[in-house]
Amino acid sequence: MNLCQRENLYQVDLLSPAQRKITEAEYWLQKRGQKELEDINEQIIADGMNPMETTFQTRKQFVRNAVSEISSSAISFEDFQSQLFEKYKIHVKENRGRYSYLHPEREKYISGRSLGTNFDKDYLLNLFLKLMHLLLSKKKSNDRPCPITMQTRLPFSSFALICVLLWTCRTVLRLNRAELMLKKSKFSIFSRWQRP
Hints:
Elements: H1 2-6, H2 24-46, H3 59-71, H4 77-88, E1 91-95, E2 98-102, E3 110-111, H5 112-115, H6 121-141, H7 147-152, H8 158-194
Antiparallel strand pairs: 1-2, 2-3
């Protein structure tokens, strides 16, 4: 790995999953689609018109781009879901602890796991939480309203944001308490084994 970094070579990291997962089939579909689009654009240019699209996007890439754009401004899952549908007509559902996305031209959902780690539930919820903390810290630091809220007019009141934060803190405390109880129970089991 050090050798590759020193020589500025790309090395595949097999231990951590990809942030943007592109399968071989999707890669070749994009290549074929781009070639076909360039052929069509040549005919359009020969007719004296300007082509509307110059780069081909697979459906998965369309969903990736849309989710990346919307997740940078959403502060909750409901907000994320509504913005994604309003702007791109992409449905989002949560099933078994995972997010799945329905492209407008498809009938089958695309799982967040097949798109990459940046589109999975854990990553997005952490991102929403960070954006909410940032928004609340800006709001507390200024007496006047935050410029972000003035531009976008969020549908949530500050009371709703505080409720979501309290719910998140409660969940984290419960997880910490569960870990503590697990450690305590393991310790008590080990201490029983050591006694004669």
